[in-house]
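CORE FACILITY INTAKE
Project code: CF-77B
Contact: R.S. (postdoc)
Sample description: multi-component assembly, two entities in total
Requested service: structural model of the whole complex
Turnaround: standard
Below are the sequence entries exactly as provided by the requester. Do not edit them.
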Amino acid sequence: MARKAIGRSVPRVDAYDKVTGRAKYTDDLADRNALIAKILHSTIANGLVTKIDTGRAEKLPGVVKILTCFDVPDIEFPTAGHPWSTDPAHRDPTDRKLLNRRVRLYGDDIAAVVAEDEVAASRALRAIEVQYEEYPAATDPEEAMRDGVPLLHEGFPNNILERHSVLDGDFDEATKEEGLIRVEGTYQTPTVQHCHIELPTSYAYMEGGRVVVVSSTQIPHIVRRIVGQALGIPWGMVRIIKPYIGGGFGNKQDALYEPLNAWLSVQLGGRLVKLELSREEAFYGTRVRHAVKVHITSYVRPDGRIVARDAKFVSNQGAYGSHGHSIVSKCVTAFRQLYNDERAKRAEAVTVYTNTATSGAMRGYGTPQSVFGMECHADDIAARLGIDPMEFRRMNMMPVGYTDPFSKNVNWSDSFNQCIEKGREYIGWDRKRELYRNQSGPVRRGVGMSLLWYNTAVWPISMEVSSCRMVLNQDGSVQIQLGETEIGQGADTVFAQMTADTLGVPFESVHVVSTQDTDITPFGTGAYGSRQTYVGGMAIKRTAESLKGKILRFASERADTGPDALDIDDGFIVRKGEPGSALFALSELATDVLYSMEHSMHFTAEETVQAKSNAYSFGAGFAEVEVDIPLAKVRLVDIVNVHDCGRLINPQLAAAQVHGGMSMGIGYGLYEKMLYDPGTGKLLNDNLLDYKLSTIMDHPHLEALFVENPEPTSAFGTKALGEPPTVPCAPAIRNAVFHATGVAANENPLTPHVLFPLFKAAGLIG
Amino acid sequence: MFDFEAVYEAKSVAHAVELRGLHPEAKILAGGSDILIETRAGKLAGCSVISIFKLDELRGVSMDGDGTLRIGALTSFSCLARDPLIGRCISVLGEAAGTAGGPQLRNIGTVGGNVCNGVTSADTASTLMAWDAVMEYTGAGGVRRAPIREHYVKAGVVSIAPDEILTSILIPQDSYERCFGCYIKYAMRGAMDIATLGCSVNVRLSEDLGTVERMRAAYGVAGPVPMRGLGAESTANGQPVSCETVNSAAAAALSDVNPRSSWRASKELRLQLVEELTRRAFRESVIRAGGKL
């Protein structure tokens, strides 16, 4: 029997092209003669553009066209990369135009220059004169909610985009129980940015009266819809092409500047216009992670059992709606499910517009924020009660068999305990918790942990669908196309492995068409929600089975037996159940049938699968730190993530995914934070020097461990792994610092700016 | 694409001096790691530059006849970091150069550029300050020398005449003989960062290693320009080699400095670092000098 592809660390299908530089990204593909577009950004954070004088700029050599917020169509459109909802009540906020007169953040898009080259475009930007009517800026959500603060968007009193609350059980009754200990804490997470290597880049032109946009996006089919909406043209008049992309992490799960780029080309009669952002623009002008503040109150028995919990979340939306309240909704879901309160739980969440960068999707989608709050709080409770934080978690975490009434997700396996065990052993939990208990020197060590809650794909919040097409070649190899996108995570390779094993051909015989072109590629919604191996896997399985059925019907004629008696194995037609019994090669059959004088046949299959399930993807993270108290500095000594993401299709790629997520989690825990000047609302650190993205020098060895409980609802037993690795690192680090020093920091990242005053207050620094 | 009005390529030091006279508005471009960034950011967009980048005679480290160590102004951080003469005479300067940015920046950035842009955080500046470096400029009137403390006027401004360029940085023999130093860069991450505080200390101990003959300390980001810790020095000089001496000097350093609060770090954190880094760098210098604490 042929060696299966699934479960093996086969090399990435794009490895050689990417390593040798042959792989083409958007900017590689753009014609060198493309006109260059640049955006004029506001220099106030809140107000109204009253006048734009482009006279001087237009006269500069090389300037082709300048368009301003006074020229754009009067259409407000949504940008979030969600599947379109046919129910108006479930649609994303539509609150921005292509360029905006009403300025809502420092750096808002108010005009665009198209020029023959970058220098001409930049010179024109500097020559444009703008007049504003300025309003006071509010960068903090609690400030923006106050009465009398100027409203960013009409129809949203107190700048509240949305709020909701949930209640499970009788909270007031539950908290009356005698002997309960009340523990409270407020936990604040920062605004951070994705910092993908490839900046948002696109180019647009017209062909046959339609507008084509080639873009670095995670979601080509969704961007097509949004460009159509933003320009007010039928969606079929838009074509989106997505080549290889240099990372997205959720930022490119939004229509960023594709609509503006398309519109600029249309204004120039379809001339080729390229729009590449700078790093600075990516920071303030694209999307960021919502900064979330949560206040948690827990009622716990002295033995550690949680009876009831209450949480109040405040989420900073920034200037525009984007993914909006969906993020904090996921915070609430994680809060409800990670811990199994015995009697009641209650949560309230509010999402608030502020004059800061727009918050959108980012790896983990609200979960890193929520889990940071909950997992810091878990250690605070354990410390208060004097019990081991691991035991506290074991006592209270979601039990096996739990079924969520809304999503119908089932916690099938004992993932939490299995992951905890592996992490406990790796980090040396029992020994080190004891060893580091009573340190007194200036440099101290600690270990901490965090659970991680996640789920897979977006059902039942949104619809879930994936389509796949397979085409057989004469040599028995196959092309596969999916709407689901390769964004660096290795999706194409995993799709090829799934195809190979389902169809019965060698891995090398599967050719993945990596580029999505909405004119050609079957419909799928793209890379987000850690959905692709799960939902895309379902489409691959059904399509491969369909293609196999067609092939075997023809093979049965030749083999003189029924199709049910045959199978395909390693590229050969075999008798079912007898993998070694090669009757003839698939390549022979494919060639003969294609060129048959009697009944020529082009073997293809195309299928769509709508997923109506979802799957939990759980795990745990552990960190060991060394804290140099007089320098208020944390050194990460060791860190491990343990995941149950079901069956591993490609262990090496899975580990790589975890390493990347951990790196992002380390940044979240120790380094990264966007800082605003409170007076002007200007982002202070919009570059990679002042925004402290962690470097390889700040990383210890990253250990990725797995337990594999195949997911029953999944075509290949898989579940989410794209986002979960980012989740547990920051709280594990914070809890390790707490263990080392006794100081419980309630905000991340744990920089010297945060730790120094805390160490001073605790008397650790004189 | 960079928005330069004009680029004048100097063919020799004399030509560079001549170009300075002809184009007084032009910036001097050495490695370009500051100028290119500011041009891209728009701050220097449309500027003219005189590039001295190709003047190889300004690269490298040598020893003058009188024992003065001569560092060419265009010597890159990475060359400085592995130069054997630097390693022998003033190894701490090589270590400091090795903390700047990342490998690419260290390959392109020059020691002359590091001290001529006048920033307080420059990684080599506090060490050059602590070792009493002498700046050698070449201008229309010939060669001029000045101690490094006179080089720094205020934040971002250095004392170079309109017709001059910095050609060498000199370390006199008395400044490095029997001296051992340590530079500690405190930054928010392990690479690719500018110093939140930089502290460079060096010592010369008595023959019996029992007394601090001379201790010198200098700081980056403790004030608007790199500065000496004269109070810390006088507290330490002539004192026995001991933890008490180290701690007293560290405490005295607090009166030498004048850091400010900014969004990059608070004054309080910087003061904490001044004392703690002085202690650690002093201690390490003593150990490197063979002293025991």
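Facility notes:
- DSSP finds 13 helices and 14 strands in chain B.
- The CA atoms of residues 60 and 281 of chain B lie 27 Å apart.
Invoice: internal transfer
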